[in-house]
Amino acid sequence: MTVLLVHNVYQKPGGEDAVFEREGALLEEQGHRVLRMRLHNDAVEGMSRVALAGRTLWSRDAYAEVRQIVEAEGVDVVHVHNTLPLASPSVFHAAHAGGAATVHTLHNYRLVCPGNLLLREGAICHDCVGKAFATPGIRHGCYRGSRLETAAVAATTAAHRALGTWDRAVDRYIVLSEFARDLFCEGGLPADRIAVKHNAPEMDPVSAPGGASVLFAGRLAKGKGIPVILEAWAADPTLPGLRIAGDGEMADEVRRAAEADPRIEWLGWVGGKDLLSVMASSAALLAPSVWYEGWPLVAVEAMGMGTPVIATGHGAFLEMIVHGETGLLIPRGDAHALAAAVHDLLGDPSRLAEIRRKTAAEFTNRFSREVNYCQLRDIYADAIAQFTAG
Q: What share of the chain is helix, strand, coil (3-state, %, to 5)?
């Protein structure tokens, strides 16, 4: 099978970029021919807002390039990750015109929320879900704090709904959780074209010993629950050591907390094998996100090391974590509950050892590379069947 992967790369590398690269490598390992089309936001520099909005809606350049590759290389499936802003949904029409089936991974919630996080002013927000046009999001400037840019995103989604892109030009959607599937169905996507496939890291499970401290790894942002973590440690002097790996808009707050509290160590950005090593020597991973996570790879990677996750009990985490067996779930935004969960998990070494064993087994059964490949292969087959049937 020949697969063309299409992705508009983010300015700051993140989970979507990692999935794009890892799934390509996984397909190649299984003998498939993989072509890659990357679009970089550097091209946005010097482009007027009007020109950028037009390209976000329909990129003639991306359409022409995708169609040319599909026809010249005999592509069977075009698998699209991020289209914003340079690829545009025109790539789905280009793939069909060239004779290839289409798959679209929905890593975030942008098709039902122009701000993509379902979060506004720190609160969960569903105001635009199911709306023909995301007027509430425009009013609040939910995309990058700009009403104009939010309007461009909302207009793109609405225009392609009218064009039939979402109903007919995408043969299969990949969503990361049943929670996301329900949201997108509520938002109007065809239920029979949506498949659930969890993101899986490129790693084999490891039986790691753990350690005495806990870890946060990810973007240092309010939505990730950084204020909740810092509040918990400030209020409870009996909590264990805390290592924070990451960078972002709350870096100054984290740095000050680390300077003031000897239990807190800020590692800066850590990735790859270095991050896995830190995970392996941690008692637990903290993920008290206040927004709905898609399917955070960092949490799955921790499970692959046998490191349990303490996470917010909403969204995808309800499907990822079995409370009391592979981690603990806490109420959203509750620093006291986070502290109590850390004490609960670390207070009984024999129970923690059993949870670590179950966590590693859960990873093997649900999130291994073999499971991920079989799911992806089957989704591609379904997409081809859908396209062939017309």
A: 50, 15, 35
Q: Is 176 helix (H, G, I), strand (E, B) or coil?
A: coil
| Structural domain containing residue 153 | 2-200+369-389
Query: Could you give the angle at the alpha carbon of 230 between the alpha carbons of 224 and 235, nearest 5°?
Result: 140
239 bridge partner residues: none
359 & 377 share domain: no
Q: Quote the pTM value.
A: 0.91
**Are 313 and 323 a contacting pair, CB within 8 Å?**
yes
Q: What token pair was written down for 264?
A: 């807190």
pLDDT, tens digit, 9 for 90 and up, residues 60-76: 999 999 999 999 999 99
- Answer yes or no: is 195 within a domain: yes
How remote is the C-alpha of 291 from its chain's centroid? 12
What is the reported pLDDT for 15? 81
User: Which phi and psi angles does 183 have, rounded to 5°?
Assistant: -65, -45
- Structural domain count, the chain: 2
In 10 A of CB 388, how many CB atoms?
9
Residues 363-389 have a mean pLDDT of 96
Q: Residue 346's pLDDT is what?
A: 97
The secondary element (H helix, E strand) that includes residue 280 is: helix 272-280
DSSP strands (E only) in 141-296: 172-175, 194-196, 214-217, 242-245, 264-268, 284-287
DSSP 8-class letter at 341? H
Instruction: For residue 191, give the DSSP letter.
Output: G
Residue 184 confidence class, pLDDT cut points 50, 70, 90: very high
Summarised one tens digit per residue, pLDDT across range 26-37 is 999 999 999 999
The DSSP symbol for 120 reads E
> Averaged over 365-376, what is the pLDDT?
93
Q: Is the dihedral of CA 219, 225, 228, 229 positive or negative?
A: negative
pLDDT at 13 over 80: no
Q: What CATH number corresponds to the domain at position 327?
A: 3.40.50.2000
Q: Tell me phi and psi for residue 49, to 5 degrees.
A: -60, -35
pLDDT in tens, 258-281: 999 999 999 999 988 999 999 999
Q: Is 381 exposed, middle or buried (0-12, 13-18, 19+ CB in 10 A)?
A: middle
d(CA 176, CA 196): 6
The Cα–Cα gap between 158 and 72 comes to: 32
